[in-house]
Amino acid sequence: MEMRSAIVVGATGLVGSELIKQLCESDEYVAITVIARRALDYSHPKLVVRIREFDALAESDMEFAHEIFCCLGTTIKKAGSHEIFEKIDVEYPVQIAAMAKNRGIQHMIVISAMSANEKSFAYYNRVKGKMEKELIEIDLPQLSIVRPSLLVGNRSEFRLGEKMGAAVLAVLNPLLIGPLKLYRSIKAEQVALAMMVIALYGKKSKVAIYSSNELAQMTMPELEEEPEVNREDLFNWNKLNAENILDEEVTFDKSKMKQYKAEQDTPKD
Fold first, then answer.
1. Which residue stretches of 107-253 are H helix?
2. Which of 23, 34, 253, 267, by CA, is between 20 and 30 Å from 202?
3. pLDDT surpasses 70 at 223
4. Is residue 30 within 8 Å of residue 4, measured between CB atoms?
């Protein structure tokens, strides 16, 4: 497989921090660039971190990459207002998508929400639906939208609502079967893995949307190894002769060659 490069935006969050580790440890990726507002607690020889304010982000901050992963997202409580929340969850991803398109990046994989819908009664879902709609309108070469359910993992900040929800779903997850699987909580590291699988082996449609249930089932395909060739078999000329691949009597019979030459030199009547 072709060695790849990637850009990750939002690498300090729950999924983004897991994603960069998996990308760096992957054999498929040789270069990962992170655009973040603050330094990371993680380092790797493949990793380049560019500290930028997103309001001042320029196209020149993005080099060519095979994929750009957008893991930006916050809460209204942390943002402090609806205006700032929408700036982080809508304006920045759309701005980044437009720049990526201009830089020739072919594929964007972005985290949305399970119930994203621009016509939803729930404000959070409505904002995520607005983001998806505006990203689709940019007409990227390829856009993959990831819709996880409640994310579980070790966040840097404490979120009481998510902690309570995760505790409840930990009990309910085994009971959520059939269509209800969609509502099972999902680990951040699994979402990160799914995003990388989507980048490498996902649907080739121009716009693809992945439900939480789909994300939970994704694994990295195991590549078939070519059978090893035994060195003794490779250079065993006796075995080749036995299989009539090389007939020494015919190939190296000089008397037959002389007879053929004599026939050719005999004048024809």
1. 123-138, 160-172, 188-201, 212-217, 231-234, 237-242, 248-251
2. 34
3. no
4. yes
